[in-house]
Amino acid sequence: MGMNLTQKLIQSHLVSGEMIAGKEIAIKIDQTLTQDSTGTMAYLQFEAIGIPRVKTEKSVAYIDHNTLQTGFENADDHKYIQTVTSKHGIYFSKPGNGICHQVHLERFGKPGKTLLGSDSHTPTGGGIGMLAIGAGGLDVAVAMGGGAYYLAMPKVCRINLTGTLSPWVTAKDVILEVLKRLSVKGGVGKVMEYAGEGIKTLSVPQRATITNMGAELGATTSVFPSDEVTKAFLDAQGRGEDWIELCADADAVYDEEVTIALDEIVPLVACPHSPDNIKNVADIQGLKVDQVAIGSCTNSSYTDMMTVASLLKGKSVHPDVSLVIAPGSKQVMNMLAANGALADIISAGARILECGCGPCIGMGQAPATNAVSLRTVNRNFEGRSGTKSAQVYIVSPETAVASALAGVVTDPHCLGDAPLISMPEHFMVNDNLIIPPAAEGTNVDVIRGPNIQPFPKNTKVPKEIKGDSLIKVEDNITTDHIMPSNAKLLPFRSNVPYLADYCLTPCDPEFPARAKKAGGGFIIAGQNYGQGSSREHAALAPLQLGVKGVIAKSFARIHMANLINNGILPLVFVNEWDYDSIQLGDELIVKYAADQIKGAVKGQEVMVTCTRTGKDFATRLNISDRQADILLAGGLLNYTKDAK
């Protein structure tokens, strides 16, 4: 029996464990990436571990999130990251060089390698055959120090692509079709492995769009084979020596299989407020549009931008529409400027933004009150744009341009013949905004601004874990809800005490004050708690407020790992009706906490006592032996330092 591509990638990096779905495994990490929203904390944690130099093949720190400098905070963080990375052997991508996932695909990603990134869209690297996984910053810090990355062995779902995309149908529509079929929970515990004759028709940027938004499925990662298409892309980047061929065996076995006929897909749109709320563009055609934003790590490649430029050439944006465009990297911006395409975009009336995340994360370009905003981003959670009342729709660049020109949601077929944009034989390569680390890190002074504050640390598990029910939230609470990440708060990502005052305020503005008054306690949650971004602050801010555990119907993968890494219990209701029985302010107790945590490894239920009712209710703690030890130690940092 042959192996699928995912199994081959994992086996070649397996440090411990068996490749049995659901069992904990550990893999060696070849490359890491961070971005500035999560990076400051990751490097503070790396420093706390006490290892002088990274042990990975390549680690890169990107500045792409907090580039709007309205005060000293972001600039100070950038200076800290530049100096700490220089000292410890990490490459530094300066502000303006581009979005981490786009730049890493262009300049550093290698087929067959593992990549761990402190950003949930790290699976973009799967577009060139990497095993690329998003994780919390502390996991990345440990990997930079040479530690293995631990995860549950995922199931592998084969997405079999047949046929060829019709004109005006894009890779964005492919992943929206997958989300339509599987939902935002459909990839949990799985790797989505793309195969079939249809993949040969998809370029690397198209593949990267699909793997990028695999994060919205809740998948561990997504991956394409490394083939002649991959080779052509790497050759064009001047990195042909990095290419190797990788594919599944002909007789490979998969846990699941989904077949999608590319020629049957139509232009699609994800409607507010979830990436899986999918409709045909034709079904909402005519809806008035106020803003269009093209860019983000999903759709900001050279071919995406050239398509946009060709569609805008000689035309004008509708007078009622604000069109903003952010190329994904300096390389893309350089090439657009050199060939005249940038002039075509500007002439049409578009506003050109810096090469960064920008509108996708609410860093500028917040829509007007009640506005309809069409965006080529990957997430449209309520309020993520910076305007709570805005209605954000996710579309392809082609649909975005058609709608920007018409002033209403418009199927791109109305534009006539679709442009044929080919991949360049040679990309413009200029890496002068990527700064290599110092050869001798001991000579580098790390500069810390006043906004960089100590991060909270947990302590060893006490005899009993006790606290009030501090808040009760519904299904699909995102990390944007738990730790808002708008333009006003992003500059304080290195100041957890400040951020903690905004924790879960989109759900309940009184939560931080209540948590402080109670001296901490428990969060009660519904299904899929913590979906979305990998931001570790969604665990650090609750820890700062004294949160001892989250009791939910289910958890998103990365957030559950972040809770464990910070010594916070992620408990799952055995009987979902117990969720209904808990009231705000109920005192909850996990008695004999250490013994119950150890018993959970053997499948024993963790019993929680509600003092108001005098009754116990059952929860599960889905952890390995190692994760039990992490919880007992009070988090991964304590566990790692104890093991040294």
Structure description:
A hairpin with a 7-residue loop joins strand 13 and strand 14 (278-280). The protein is α/β, with parallel strands linked by helices and 644 residues long. Helix content is 29%, strand content 19%. It is built from 21 helices and 27 strands.
Key features?
alpha/beta, 7-stranded mixed β-barrel, 19% strand, globular
Please give the structural blueprint.
Elements: H1 5-11, E1 14-16, E2 24-27, E3 31-35, H2 36-49, E4 58-62, H3 72-88, E5 91-93, H4 100-107, E6 114-117, E7 131-134, H5 137-144, E8 149-152, E9 155-162, H6 171-182, E10 190-195, H7 204-212, E11 221-223, H8 228-236, E12 256-261, E13 268-270, E14 278-280, E15 291-294, H9 302-312, E16 322-325, H10 330-339, H11 341-347, E17 351-352, E18 372-375, E19 391-394, H12 397-406, E20 434-435, E21 465-472, H13 479-482, H14 496-499, H15 511-518, E22 521-525, H16 537-544, E23 547-552, H17 557-565, E24 569-573, H18 577-581, E25 587-590, H19 593-601, E26 606-610, E27 615-620, H20 625-633, H21 636-643
Parallel strand pairs: 3-4, 3-6, 4-5, 6-7, 9-10, 9-12, 10-11, 15-16, 15-18, 16-17, 18-19, 21-22, 22-23, 23-24
Antiparallel strand pairs: 1-2, 2-8, 5-20, 13-14, 21-25, 24-27, 25-26, 26-27
